[in-house]
Specification:
The complex is a heterodimer of chains A (370) and B (86). With 370 residues, chain A is an alpha+beta fold. Chain A is built from 8 helices and 23 strands. In chain A, β18 and β19 form a beta hairpin. The two termini of chain A are 82 Å apart. Chain B has one domain: Immunoglobulin-like (Sandwich). Helices cover 9% and strands 59% of the residues of chain B. The model of chain B has no long low-confidence stretch (mean pLDDT 88). The chains are: A alpha+beta (370), B mainly beta (86). Chains A and B meet through α1 and β2 of A and β3 and β5 of B.
């Protein structure tokens, strides 16, 4: 912007002006009978002076009107006092901390760090010189899970950079643990070891209670570290059900003949009894009793029902009813399959021993055994 | 340089080669903007004459002054009474 003012004699001004405007921008040109004044940019000042000199134009005066000139002219006492006070306040404020920046804390809360700062009496408007950075750093490093802390003061801010510990499960879980054992019989199909020492491999057939993962590891120094054994071991587990069906079965069948006795008692004292002469060869007995009155007078009647039965030999017709028996065995196996188990295969074997048919139904499921 | 001179020519579908001498804007007789001047002929508070291609522009008025002048444009402010071209 215009910063320098030239005042030159007004004679032949136009000629000089036409030379100057070829190279420079001229502002606020005024001309009267004796003088001509104009402004130019600060950067053009020297070149304009040179051209004026070249054309023999005497510069009557030149003045600077830049920002420093404006400040120089600020003669108002209020402005000067304002500038001085602002400057003093600014300088004073540079001696204090007015911001705390935390970097790198992920699991450690800001509150924990601010507590340490509070213990050191660091807050806004604490003098920078009053902060013991080394002591603060040491205390920050004492916070749980802080691996390293650095503290610097930059400008008016105190910057705290926290490096958190990388947690290692093996170390965290140090203690006394039981080995991981198989919960079912099965054949291992996949192993995902998280920690511990593996005692099995894919393809191994394991039984309920077999140790799969030992609760320790060896570190790089060869030291045995106790850890919580963790592993996802998936097995093919065989769920087997056995059903024996004889060709001929002897069953108790009720004939339908019954006989009844009853007795009336009061507080276990027998008041009346009616006995029937039982002539059945084989019979079953059922007892029922109920109160005749309310509980205040505990008079009870007790019934004895005798049902006659006889043994019958029934032909099971296994071959004819094989599907029914197979389905029955399958359903019994399925009772042991959990909802989330993945059924991989189903098979059955029928053996005959003497007059007994033995159905062994096997469902193979893929399941986590740890 | 103001582009709207070219826009006016384009709007009216005129031959731009006919309008390559100079352009003037007079704003409320308080400011005159001249584009395409060839230098200043004379300067005084009552009149300022500007050389243009094939002629001269004479600005008459009171308290005239050159507010800004560059190699191709000039801005005159003051109480402008008339602008003559010859």
């Amino acid at each position: 912007m215009k910063q320098y003012k030239f005042i030159i004699p007004s004679l032949n001004t136009e000629k000089i002006l036409n030379k100057l405007i070829l190279q420079f921008d001229i502002f606020d040109m005024k001309k009267d009978e004796k003088t001509c004044s104009f402004f130019c940019k600060s950067k053009d000042k020297k070149n304009i002076e040179k051209i004026l000199k070249q054309y023999g134009v005497k510069v009557e005066s030149k003045s600077y009107y830049g920002i420093f000139k404006q400040l120089k002219n600020a003669s108002s006492l209020g402005v000067i006092i304002g500038i001085v006070i602002s400057t003093i306040l600014y300088i004073i404020s540079t001696f204090f901390i007015n911001d705390v920046l935390l970097i790198g804390n992920l699991s450690i809360t800001s509150k924990e760090i601010m507590e340490v700062l509070d213990n050191h009496n660091i807050n806004k408007w604490t003098l920078k010189s009053a902060v013991n950075l080394e002591s603060l750093k040491n205390d920050l490093q004492k916070i749980k899970y802080v691996s390293y802390a650095s503290v610097i003061i930059k400008g008016n801010a105190i910057i705290i950079n926290i490096k958190e510990q990388l947690t290692n499960d093996e170390v965290v879980n140090l203690g006394v643990f039981q080995p991981l054992v198989a919960k079912y019989d099965g054949k291992i199909t996949s192993i995902k070891l998280i920690q511990g020492t593996l005692k099995c491999k894919v393809g191994d057939i394991v039984k309920l209670g077999d140790v799969l993962v030992e609760p320790y590891v060896y570190d790089s120094n060869g030291d045995k570290l106790s850890v919580q054994p963790l592993a996802d071991i998936i097995c093919d587990v065989w769920i087997t059900t056995r059903l024996e069906v004889k060709d001929k079965e002897i069953k108790k069948i009720k004939t339908g003949n019954i006989a009844k006795d009853y007795s009336i008692t009061f507080m276990d004292l027998n008041l009346f009894t009616q006995k029937t002469d039982i002539k059945f060869k084989n019979f079953m007995v059922e007892e029922n009793e109920k109160y005749l009155t309310n509980y205040i007078l505990p008079i009870k009647i007790k019934y004895m029902t005798y049902s006659e039965y006889e043994y019958c030999e029934i032909n099971t017709e296994f071959e004819k009813n094989k599907d029914k028996y197979l389905n029955q065995t399958r359903q019994m196996s399925l009772l042991n399959v959990k909802e989330y188990d993945i059924i991989k295969d189903e098979s059955y074997v029928i053996n005959k021993q003497d007059d007994t048919n033995i159905i062994v139904y096997t469902i193979t499921v893929n399941k986590l055994i740890t | 340089m103001f582009n709207f001179f070219n826009e006016i020519i384009a709007d009216y579908g005129l031959d731009s080669s006919l309008f390559n001498n100079f352009n003037i804007i007079n704003m409320s007789n308080k400011l005159v903007y001249i584009e395409g001047h060839k230098g200043v002929v004379s300067i005084s508070k009552q009149n300022i004459s500007i050389r243009v291609k094939k002629g001269v522009l004479l600005i008459n008025g009171n308290n005239l002054q050159i507010k800004r002048i560059t190699s191709s444009t000039v801005t005159v402010i003051g109480n402008i009474k008339e602008i003559e071209s010859y």
